[in-house]
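re: that chain from earlier
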Amino acid sequence: MSQESVAVPIKILGVKYQISCEPGEEKALLESATLLDERLAKMREQSRLSIEQASMMVALNLAHDLLKAKREVEESEGKIRRKLESLLAKIDEQMGA
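^ sequence. v structure.
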């Protein structure tokens, strides 16, 4: 993180925190904190887990969601790349004809 950071107040499960982030990243930090708070609250409502256990489960679920999204992006990029290569081959074929 750069020298210039911004302190952003967030609240997770009723506890207030001041988290530093780079300028321009405040909205993303607030959205992340809201998502985490919502997921933790839901996990706590649905189970008798401690805050630590709920935090671990939510972290694992978020990591799973992230990896799934990355795989989907990679698959989409692969499809786009193959389509592009096919189109370029057709262009080359037409240019050579």
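Residues 55 and 71 are 24 Å apart (CA to CA).
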